[in-house]
Amino acid sequence: MAAPSVTIGVLALQGAFREHLRALSEFEGVSALPVRTKEQLATVDALVIPGGESTTMGLVAERSGLLEELRAMTRARQKPVFATCAGLIMLAQRAQHEKTGGQPLLGGLDVVVDRNFFGTQLQSFEATMDVRLPGDEAASTCHAVFIRAPAILEVGIRVEVLATLPVDKSPRPLEKPCIVAARQGPFLVTAFHPELTADRRWHAYFVDQVRATKG
């Protein structure tokens, strides 16, 4: 039986949305669409919130009238969401080191994130991290790109950790491995940018989750 066709939107207000659209277009049976309005949001089966500048994305969404629609969707867990880097910050229940005046958060994911845990744009880096995706028989590794990246400091009891950055791979001192990918129900989040590498396992995993909810 053929896998069900799905439509996945990519929030296209700012940031690396084109790279996600390109990655998703590689999967058979997936229609990838940019989302800029609440009308477009209503037509998709799932949503990707890309990396970029979380404060800017939140403010643009607020001005366009999309923020409350997004917030209602994530807090009710109505659709699967894949959030990367800045998207992780937006989806978190709480963020540390926000800009002065705060920033619009969507909430829905029971984690605490540190907004710029790994420093500034100049401190961006690449590293190999430890991964355990559901369905994998054993732990594996994955090369990842971190750009002004956040980190997950705390997770709720229903949050499953999927990837950690080893202490010896971090550009800043760590007391223990740092959480850089997780899932909770329909939500998948990464602190890094999977769309910037040729490794499609994260997009493939998300596509499978979307198909499971539809099929």
From TrEMBL:
<feature type="binding site">
    <location>
        <position position="115"/>
    </location>
    <ligand>
        <name>L-glutamine</name>
    </ligand>
</feature>
<comment type="similarity">
    <text>Belongs to the glutaminase PdxT/SNO family.</text>
</comment>
<dbReference type="InterPro" id="IPR002161">
    <property type="entry name" value="PdxT/SNO"/>
</dbReference>
<protein>
    <recommendedName>
        <fullName>glutaminase</fullName>
        <ecNumber>3.5.1.2</ecNumber>
    </recommendedName>
</protein>
<feature type="binding site">
    <location>
        <begin position="52"/>
        <end position="54"/>
    </location>
    <ligand>
        <name>L-glutamine</name>
    </ligand>
</feature>
<feature type="active site" description="Charge relay system">
    <location>
        <position position="193"/>
    </location>
</feature>
<dbReference type="InterPro" id="IPR029062">
    <property type="entry name" value="Class_I_gatase-like"/>
</dbReference>
<keyword id="KW-0378">Hydrolase</keyword>
<feature type="active site" description="Nucleophile">
    <location>
        <position position="85"/>
    </location>
</feature>
<keyword id="KW-0456">Lyase</keyword>
<dbReference type="GO" id="GO:1903600">
    <property type="term" value="C:glutaminase complex"/>
</dbReference>
<dbReference type="GO" id="GO:0008614">
    <property type="term" value="P:pyridoxine metabolic process"/>
</dbReference>
<feature type="active site" description="Charge relay system">
    <location>
        <position position="195"/>
    </location>
</feature>
<dbReference type="InterPro" id="IPR021196">
    <property type="entry name" value="PdxT/SNO_CS"/>
</dbReference>
<dbReference type="GO" id="GO:0042823">
    <property type="term" value="P:pyridoxal phosphate biosynthetic process"/>
</dbReference>
<dbReference type="GO" id="GO:0016829">
    <property type="term" value="F:lyase activity"/>
</dbReference>
<dbReference type="Pfam" id="PF01174">
    <property type="entry name" value="SNO"/>
</dbReference>
<dbReference type="GO" id="GO:0005829">
    <property type="term" value="C:cytosol"/>
</dbReference>
<dbReference type="GO" id="GO:0004359">
    <property type="term" value="F:glutaminase activity"/>
</dbReference>
<keyword id="KW-0315">Glutamine amidotransferase</keyword>
<feature type="binding site">
    <location>
        <begin position="147"/>
        <end position="148"/>
    </location>
    <ligand>
        <name>L-glutamine</name>
    </ligand>
</feature>
